[in-house]
Design brief:
Blueprint lengths: L11 E5 L5 E4 L1 H8 L7 E3 L6 E3 L3 E3 L6 H11 L2 H27 L4 H27 L9
Antiparallel strand pairs: 1-2, 1-5, 3-4
Helix pairs in contact: 3-4
Length: 145
Amino acid sequence: MAKSPYSLKVGRVYIHKKCKQGTQVNGADFEGLCNPFKLCLGTVCASCGGPRGLKTFYWEDTKEPLDTYRKRLRTKVPAIYTYWWLWISPLIGLIAGSLIGPMLLKKSTLPIVAGSAVVGSLIMFLIVGPQVLMLIAPKKYYKLR
């Protein structure tokens, strides 16, 4: 994977397929858009406005669709990153949620345990897991072309 001169300050330009106009993205938005382990379902076109799915945008310089770019980066990292994101962190959330939920609600019926387990898994998968991954193995995905 080629390194690039991108920086958080300058960012990068993506093009909306529908209107063919570019949008400059930088800073935390750029970092989040490039990180394949952070939740990102779409972005916004500065020209026509409104949120759209990642598959409707592509990088100006490489012509690679944003959704394909994120999938490609996910396959280029060590397998443990993906295992952590898809399996280990949700499993930790499942266990923690099934223990913490009933303690907080002072009930341990099956729906409470199951609901707490699902909530714990989602929190770990979507929020905590990617943040812990960045602390353990910080990677500047925005620098990769």
